[in-house]
Amino acid sequence: MSDCIFCKIGAGDMESDIIWESDSAVGFRDINPQAPTHILIIPREHVPMIADANEEHQELLGDLILTAKKIAEQEGIAENGYRLVFNNGDHGRQDVYHIHLHLLGGRQLTWPPG
Amino acid sequence: MSDCIFCKIGAGDMESDIIWESDSAVGFRDINPQAPTHILIIPREHVPMIADANEEHQELLGDLILTAKKIAEQEGIAENGYRLVFNNGDHGRQDVYHIHLHLLGGRQLTWPPG
User: Fold this and answer.
1) A91 is catalytic
2) Which of A55, B22, B33, B44 is least enclosed by beta carbons within 10 angstroms?
3) What is the layout of strands, in order, in the sheet containing B101-105?
4) Residue A56 CB: number of other CB atoms within 10 A?
5) A82 to chain B: nearest residue by CA?
6) Hey, is the C-beta of A16 within 8 angstroms of any chain B C-beta?
7) Does A84 fall in a domain?
8) Which listed residue (A38, A98, A100, A102) is catalytic?
């Protein structure tokens, strides 16, 4: 069995506040939110990093963005706007090595983005 | 003719520091960099916002991410890591209404992402 906590969340083997499920992706609330709305969107497939992705993951990556867009509508933050963030590796401050997209909204995001 | 400055950059009608070109996307240096490496990746197709994207743009969105991954390798920041950011609308602090992906690296990014 995988030791990856995001694989476990996707499989329903670890508790999380899931707000979106599709055949390909799962959306759940970040346990350490940085904005009034802070959702993580993960693919069900285990891919550790953006740096590991290649052409065969193009559809998966596009799906994560489109899923974030739909979740933003569901969460009521589409009109005011939001930010989408992928962290990759140490300098990006990636914490879990299963690709995940951060959706942040409900407040004014600032610049630079960290 | 389009008034969109990113359409003009993609068409070669406005000067910019272009570092990547493909049939579908263009990468160029941000004129106001927030990190030692700060690249913008745009689709050649004009789509104003993530909020405007739908299933027909899934391939385009995945391509932007994969292009960023390849540019990170070219720029020598793949090993240490990087962050990818889409700003959407006011709260996301989107400045140009032609979808663009920020690639930031060459320093430790912090949290929250703005």
Assistant:
1) no
2) A55
3) A18-21, A25-29, A37-43, A101-105, A82-88, B82-88, B101-105, B37-43, B25-29, B18-21
4) 8
5) B92
6) no
7) yes
8) A100
Asked whether residue B111 is domain-assigned, the answer is no
Q: Give pLDDT tens digits for A12-41.
A: 999 999 999 999 999 999 999 999 999 999
Reported for A24-33, long-range contacts at CB under 8 A and 24+ positions apart, including other chains, are A24/A60, A24/A63, A25/A63, A25/A64, A25/A67, A27/A67, A27/A68, A27/A71, A27/A103, A30/A102
- Classify residue B114: in a domain, yes or no: no
Phi, psi of B12, deg, nearest 5: 80, 15
Host domain of residue B46: 5-105
Rounded CA-CA distance B41/B25 in Å is 7
The pLDDT mean for chain B works out to 97
Question: ipTM value of the model?
Answer: 0.98
Domain count, chain A: 1
Asked, for residue B112, whether it belongs to a domain, the answer is no
| B31: CATH | 3.30.428.10
What residues in B contact A53, CB-CB < 8 Å?
65-66, 69
pLDDT at position A2: 78
pTM over 0.90: yes
